[in-house]
## 1
Amino acid sequence: MTVILAIESSCDETSVALIEDGHKILTNLVASQIKSHMRFGGVVPEVASRHHVEQISQLVNLALKEGKVNWKQIDAVAVTQGPGLVGALLVGVTAAKTLALIHNKPLIAVNHLAGHIYASQLQAPLQFPALALIVSGGHTELVYLENHLDFQVIGETQDDAVGEAYDKVGRILDLPYPAGKYLDQLAHQGQESYDVPRAMLHEDNLDFSFSGMKSAVMNLVHNAHQRGQTINQADLAASFQAAVVEILTSKVKTALEDHPNCQQFILAGGVAANSGLRAALTDLIQTNFSQIDLQIPPLSLCGDNAAMIGAVAYPMYLAKDFADLSINAIPSLDL
Ligand code: KG4
Ligand code: ZN
């Protein structure tokens, strides 16, 4: 039995988890800072770092208490090294290095995007080859895995991440930050009646572009205001969501056709909470790829959390892929 204490602080959630053998959650505490950033309409890096500093020690102590684990039973300390906000990452990395040093445990440096993919391992074992779609506030990537920790990025956004586009469109519609959830809810009350372009839909690659779609929605709102017309917010949300879902689903279909040996498809990241996307991808797999195992983590594990970092750290622990205590945060770390 291997118990890993994992820390995540890459953006606006401070989280500490205890994970047994890479899949069993002993505890997964998440302190969200959303309320502090809401009034600014986005994450303020300095505010995020300060909150992480205030939270981290208490969360470590609370996790040990709630997980009913003492330091003798912990085998390693894992932490998100990147990508993310440098100040925010540094708080987690510094805490993890200190704990590893004091308690004489190996340190494991984890990529946050790998974490989003491995969130699915907290509900079912990974099956290889696997294809993962990571959709979050900072990333939109299609990743192919031949085996554990063997990440091949086969498609990615050329500009905005899909969550970022949701948040920016939500801001134009005066929805609270982060707007993805509210825009998703609004989309269900409307009809697709506005024309939102499907960027890169017919291009012969697996890349995405969301900034043009976001600008198209902004222009629709702006032009309507200038003409003194009102916009039907629910219809606009439905039209934007339909365009986003169509693009993501179409690229996943192409990727699965390109990789016929795929055993599992994983939807990962904060935008995996999107009901339209979940429904469309479930339908795609059931209809066209019924032999593929579909994994969509529960909502609580789609957003940023430390349990997913502990899940990646387990195969790294088995491979003795340990980090030196001199490591630093890497804000633009690639998969
Ligand atoms: O993975 P995550 O928690 O943080 C990052 O690593 O970015 O993702 C946060 C993103 C935000 O942009 C948020 O608006 C979006 O996920 N999001 C959604 C939904 N729930 C959260 N986007 C669309 N529909 C949702 N239901
Ligand atoms: Zn994330």
Note: The pocket of KG4 (ligand 1) is lined by residues 11, 136-138, 163, 166-167, 178-181, 184, 269-271, 273-274, 303-304 (CB under 6 Å).
## 2
Amino acid sequence: MAFQAHHQHFLLVPFMSQSHLIPFTHLAKLLASNGVSVTIVLTPLNAAKFNTLIDQAKALKLKIQFHVLPFPSAEAGLPEGCENLDTLPSPQYKHLFFSASNMLKEPLEKWLSELETLPTCMVSDICLPWTTTVASKFKIPRVVFHGISCFALLCSHKIGHSKVHENVTSMSEPFVVPDLPDAIEFTKAQLPGAMSQDSKAWKHAVEQFKAGEHSAAGILVNTFEELEKMYVRGYEKVGRKIWCIGPLSLHDKLFLERAGRDGNETSLDESECLNFLSSNKPCSVIYVCFGSLCRINASQLKEIALGLEASSHPFIWVIGKSDCSQEIEKWLEEENFQERNRRKGVIIRGWAPQVEILSHPSTGGFLSHCGWNSTLEAVSAGIPMITWPMSAEQFINEKLIVQVLKIGVRIGVEAPVDPMETQKALVKKECVKKAVDQLMEQGGDGEQRRNRAREIKEMAQKAVEDGGSSASNCELFIQEIGAVEDGGSSASK
Ligand code: UDP
């Protein structure tokens, strides 16, 4: 086989959202460390956010470059500067964001048509199904990148295939997903898109994603085989070629270490929060963060605050950018909340250094919305979780965390927040306190969960080391894609 990674040039086309861009940039470093030259398609503001990647690549003599395309915010009816899903003024703008993302097709084609030599492979985001047409027009082998687990992929596939959810009479009646290694139950309300205001548009989008996956040469999944072996095999049996190459955040940690850095470059706020962690006992702090997209109303935030205060554990609580409302700030001030909890807790407004916090020895638990990146980051750090799913495939991830991996405690929500109920708190402070105390319990179930989480962390670390499953899968992927290109149509014009 004429396998020469250094002759390969991979084009990465991510969806412009934090939870897609972060693993894509990690993937770029992983591929480049394996000798591949990598170009990532970005838009101006997103490129600016990830500029340190270029410096890191230069320091390690890795071939990573950006190709920057203007994001058609205005053309799609979005506010100027809205280039990332986490900058939408409200969730109602989501469909416009997808329209703008689809408009990247033409400029990408134009750029490709001007190249002397075409990329040898395209890795495109599952959320950009139009990349199928672009890749086939230029005869570039294409694989899809999935930022979710094989467990979620297989559950969704089995539900879609069997239509078992169509036999229940209400949104809250449970049904068992057929033909899975474990007895996994959901309600209709917990399925991705259940709360979508335009279910027809949602269905259409899912069909397009599926078609994009079907026509790809294979799929890269940000997971590792040891975490969910039976589900990886199960999804392969559906007829997919899969390379499990994660956890990408752990590969990234190794990458930064090789570059002579610890990944702990922090702003003042960040170092304050790491100092707070260092001033606490090992495994004592609960970290609370709901990802880059969740919007949590002020009533709910107050319940979280009071629940954390009532629990017997120190906390770091992230109030996301879009949740920092005047109402919550006024309440925190009137209550003198931060002063009252000066020794007990830290509030971060905006963006927290999540991976650093999770890998700090004082962190002992993670209250999370169960986004897949957050889940994998917790797994990689050996941290048990309190699961509070809110939307997308997060209810599916909760089942994996609590029922299959047994490293989590449920906060107890049964369905996503109704988008019309913007003022109500779904989870009361008593539930927050109870879940935190339960998760952090010394001995008993708490100890068992912690031990399991540590065992899984070991497996994750082995997977990304030389000779580990994910490291080997990445090499295999590069070889196999090289063989597609050598044996199939030449991608050079
Ligand atoms: N994240 C972070 N700091 C924050 C919020 C989020 O570093 O304050 C990162 C987090 O580490 C993860 C990503 O943003 O890599 C969130 O992805 P996830 O899939 O968990 O959730 P989503 O944002 O898609 O809801």
Note: The chain is about 45% helix and 15% strand.
## 3
Amino acid sequence: MSTFSYSESTPAAMSLITIDNFINNAYVKPQNGIYFDTFEPSRGRPYAKIPDSAATDVELAYKAAASAFPAWSKTSAAERSNIMNKIANLLESRLDEFAEAESRDQGKPVELARTVDIPRAIHNFRFYASKIIHATEEAGELPGVGLSYTQRMPVGVAGLISPWNLPLYLLTWKIAPCIASGNTAVCKPSEFTSMTAFLLCSVFIDAGLPTGVVNMVFGTGMGAGQAIVDHPRIPLISFTGGTVTGAKIIANSAKHFKKLSLELGGKNANIVFADSNLEAALNTSVRSSFANQGEICLCGSRIFVERPVYQQFLDGLVARAKNLKVGDPRSKDTNLGALVSREHWEKVTGYIQLSLEEGGKIECGGQKPSSLQDEFKDGYFLEPTIISGLTPQCRVMREEIFGPVVTIYPFDTEEEVIQLANDSVYGLSCSVWTENIRRARRVAGAIQAGTVWVNTWMARDLRMPFGGMKQSGLGREGGDHSLNFYSEIKTICLAD
Ligand code: NAD
């Protein structure tokens, strides 16, 4: 069992951790022998070496998954459920270690990983361990003919590709329903955050997951990721990541008619009506704007506030944002850690610069905190930033920034704000704040987004469908929706 401890980051232990692929329940070096550095965002320095896997590694992983498939697909739901519960229990017993690893790799506060990311990863396995033993098929009498019923078959070897913002949370959200449904998998975590996926492999071994059921290939999108999408015998791709990548995956997989689930980007509206509980709206909006450094696809990055309470809301949000502590991810009172990479920090700060060129006013933030010294002076930190004065046509109000940057804009009528919220190529989520139940139902019904929260944010019921409209994705995950995606459903008609 490999264990992980933050103390490895002390100067005395500066040798880089090396990650290897996980194929047939064994750690395997990349065929080309090439590794690249991955960086610790809070310190801005390399701390681990990641295999730069290519098509040959994907082929090895595919072969392992394909030879595991016949036996795994024939196991009973109860057997699969049992192993998944063991995975969940082992993960839970290593909660602190996984939380520290996630924080060090991604930049987020340890406390966030300990209370959100890793518990959700545990829950993903438990949820589908339970779901699969309670799953039923459809059946109906066909008068004069006989009985129609459905039967599910696993699809085969699944390609699971995940992003860097919620690394273990989102990867396990794919692995759990995939293996619960009897498929085997070739996974490709983000090249920026491979560590907890690597640690998860040791959990699989300890839980007794049969050889080859889940294989992990580390590397870049253009290398290992594209090789999975191009592989002619991987019939299903579940992808979470950017919209531009999603479009490439649609194009590259089209010739093989792959089953696709795409969870993509967003530019979510957070709508605050004057009749809302302003205190509650403010307290949640500071989280929906800046949690995980704003690197959550569901963050409400476009805030629209009804004019009579606009100034009061802006003042309240600025005061709360200024109170947030940015810095050492290990410290329990840290609210924002570091952004995931230097490239991403440059992208996000580029948008702050652009907002000035577009006529915006930075109400707070916009800078790397000057208080960060010593070990954190090279980290990719950024203050929570609120920008006013932009028009809805500005790029900063239209493009996904995916950092601790929100825009705020006043509106006058319900019709106007519905039009503003829907005026986007994205349609992932939206929050609505009002105490008027009829208005809540009207607005929620009119919003073009896969999830609408009323007087809350990021509350997630795993039984419910989750996904995006428009360029925010294709398909729905969660509950039966994932089981349907990871299955081929056959109708059998049996004559009397
Ligand atoms: P990304 O698209 O750059 O990368 C995601 C994954 O795809 C990585 O593992 C990457 O290596 C791989 N990849 C890149 N190019 C590929 C290709 N051509 N073929 C196959 N795989 C390829 O996204 P990111 O920067 O890691 O993540 C941020 C994005 O993810 C944001 O847009 C965010 O909104 C989105 N996201 C969406 C959801 C959701 O549920 N809708 C959740 C989290 C993140």
Note: The longest strand covers residues 146-154.
